[in-house]
Amino acid sequence: MKALVITDIGHAEMRDVEPPECGAGEVLLSVRHVGLCGSDLNTYSGLNPLATLPRIPGHEIGGTILECGAGVPAGFEVGRPAIVIPYTTCGTCSSCRSGRHNACRYNRTLGVQQDGGMTSLMAVRHDRLIVNDTLPAAHLALVEPLSVGFHAVARGRVAKGETVAVFGGGMIGVGAMLGALARGARVLMVEISAAKRGTLLDLGAETVIDPNATDLAAEISRLTGDRGPDVTIEAVGLPQTFRGAVDIAGFAGRVVYVGYAKEEVSYNTSLFNLKELDILGSRNATRADFEAVIDFLEENRAIGTRLVSRIFPWAEAAGSFDYWRENRNETFKVIVDLGSG
Questions:
Q1: pTM of the model
Q2: How far is Cα 26 from Cα 123, in angstroms, rounded to an integer?
Q3: Alpha helices in the chain, H assignment, sequence order
Q4: How do strand 254-257 and strand 163-167 relate by DSSP bridges?
């Protein structure tokens, strides 16, 4: 069978790989749609320290059940569409023992620490699947990235009537924005791309602030009556946005980091104490986050359609990385359709 493989930095190609066997407790999935994530692009660009090459990318995966192994319970019938939860859990580390399986110390995400979904067939443990018969097929690949943003909102304990500032208008930031709106919060987006501004406003942001064109702290102060946001979510991963999240946070506020900074970050740490901030990390997503996103997309299908920037046919999948890299400022989600030629 065919798989798209990142073989070297800046190069991806189709290769023949051995088809998987469906073992006990596993489901054989015919992969239909795979979304490209920032981690995939970083692997392609040689900027992902967690991935080694060659690597089959892809962890935003939707497909159709072809076969079930021994011991798979009812509900996973052949022909049903399914979404993959791409993280592993060891069950014994401190995170797993505390019930926070999404932060498993030994997690090996598909497409990052192990080969992922950019391949015709996958064997997946049944407990890593969510069956869904209602979403459009391409929207199954939107669930995982939006879930990461929804999880950041859950970590921040966002409540109705609160003000949330989100740094970053990529898919994770959009997930945080939509998750906060779903809880009845007011959302202020911080995003430098003018091309994304209209869509972010249409999706429900009260405003979109370009920190390169506006004094961010002054604008946030004006918009919040000098109180600052109740919750600030960082979904960019740059030192300046890491610091900015603390700088603009309101007193007694919560700061959630879901972005990954690729270099050391220095802070004026007195703000941690003076504001008595809750500073929280956010990693991956839980099944409950996936289910919350599924419910949201089922009620707001037009939003899912709006977030799909381009769908590449399987035969042209190798060019999807360069396309996204060259059009990143105006792109929300690039999806590869493995069911097309």
A1: 0.97
A2: 6
A3: 38-45, 94-97, 143-155, 171-182, 194-202, 216-223, 239-248, 270-274, 287-299, 301-307, 320-326
A4: unpaired
